[in-house]
């Protein structure tokens, strides 16, 4: 029970950090590819014209989209491969392509917004649905984040449970399950991190296949809903985020695992870039509690 309870908040930690971000410059990659210019030392392709047989009218043979002669010698319009013939409307982009392009733009804005946040405070609710066990669990509390390595999840339900990152260690104490144990994990040695750039927002368009699934209201704020499928190995199968349309912070975060378990964190009453004291991110193990190093 303890290990399962441990795993839930650790994944929630990653999810809840979605509105805060981490160190590192945001990606500057554009979603629209620039037009290619001629290579250095090369001249642009020459426009070659010749008269159409029997007409004397010049025909541009460099650009196949321009008129080409008919077999009888008269000119006729000819469309480029994949392009509509003259007089016909261009086909609209496929819905999937439009959704992916817009999702990529939104992800870039999310990354840039996260980079500008130094600290964050919010109320959170966390839910876990496990279909294999037919179980639903819910928790709530207060979340604090200060870059680069301070983090606190203080639970009010279950009351007293806490996760603290003090710059050196993660401390995990769950008196709701066991008052005699404290889990301690080295942030550096254990590979743990409170740097969301490293977790999710570093080059998201290269790491995920993203689609825009629609829009919904989260805590009264209009939000984009993005579905992200990891391109490589991952602890989850699908990631969904709800992105505020005004400030591009992630207000809701949902992970679907291979066994169909769904973990969700929602942030409310978000405050950013205000002072958070060092004392907030300290933890003293209760007297007599056993510290388990992981």
Describe the structure.
- The protein has a domain at 2-22 and 98-204 and 270-293: outer membrane lipoprotein receptor (LolB), chain A, CATH 2.50.20.10.
- The model is unreliable at 1-71 and 73-82 (pLDDT under 50).
- 16% of the residues lie in helices and 38% in strands.
- By secondary structure, it is an alpha+beta fold.
- It is built from 4 helices and 16 strands.
- The protein has helices spanning 2-16, 95-115, 196-201, 204-207, and strands spanning 49-51, 58-60, 68-69, 75-76, 119-130, 135-146, 150-157, 159-166, 169-173, 181-186, 208-218, 221-230, 238-244, 250-256, 262-272, 290-293.
- The protein has a 12-stranded mixed sheet. Strands 1-2 form a two-stranded antiparallel ribbon. The chain has a two-stranded antiparallel sheet with strand order 3-4.
How many helical stretches?
4
Which whole number gives the mean pLDDT? 75
CA radius of gyration: 27 Å
CATH-level-2 architecture of the domain at 2-22 and 98-204 and 270-293: Clam
CATH fold label of the domain at 2-22 and 98-204 and 270-293: outer membrane lipoprotein receptor (LolB), chain A
By CATH reckoning, the class of the domain at 2-22 and 98-204 and 270-293 would read Mainly Beta
Question: CATH H-level name of the domain at 2-22 and 98-204 and 270-293... which superfamily?
Answer: Lipoprotein localisation LolA/LolB/LppX
């Amino acid at each position: 029970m303890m290990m399962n309870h441990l795993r839930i908040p650790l994944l929630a930690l990653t999810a809840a950090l979605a509105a805060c971000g981490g160190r590192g410059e945001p990606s500057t990659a554009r979603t629209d590819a620039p037009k290619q210019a001629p290579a250095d030392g090369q001249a642009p392709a020459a426009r070659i014209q010749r008269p159409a047989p029997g007409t004397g009218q010049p025909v541009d043979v460099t650009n196949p989209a321009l008129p080409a002669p008919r077999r009888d010698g008269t000119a006729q319009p000819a469309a480029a491969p994949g392009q509509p013939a003259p007089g016909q409307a261009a086909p609209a982009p496929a819905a999937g392509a439009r959704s992916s392009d817009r999702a990529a733009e939104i992800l870039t804005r999310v990354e840039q917004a996260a980079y500008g946040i130094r600290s964050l405070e919010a109320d959170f609710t966390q839910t876990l649905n496990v279909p294999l066990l037919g179980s639903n669990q819910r928790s709530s509390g207060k979340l604090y984040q200060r870059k680069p390595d301070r983090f606190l999840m203080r639970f009010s339900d279950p009351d007293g449970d806490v996760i603290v990152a003090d710059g050196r260690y993660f401390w995990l104490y769950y008196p709701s399950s066991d008052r005699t144990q404290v889990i301690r994990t080295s942030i550096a040695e254990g590979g743990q991190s409170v740097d969301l750039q490293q977790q999710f927002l570093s080059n998201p368009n290269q790491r995920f296949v993203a689609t825009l699934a629609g829009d919904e209201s989260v805590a009264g704020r209009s939000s984009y809903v993005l579905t992200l499928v990891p391109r490589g190995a991952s602890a989850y199968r699908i990631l969904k985020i709800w992105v505020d349309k005004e400030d591009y912070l992630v207000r809701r975060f949902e992970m679907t695992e291979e066994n169909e378990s769904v973990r969700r964190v929602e942030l409310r009453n978000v405050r950013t870039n205000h002072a958070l004291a060092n004392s907030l991110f300290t933890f003293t193990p209760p007297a007599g509690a056993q510290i388990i190093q992981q």
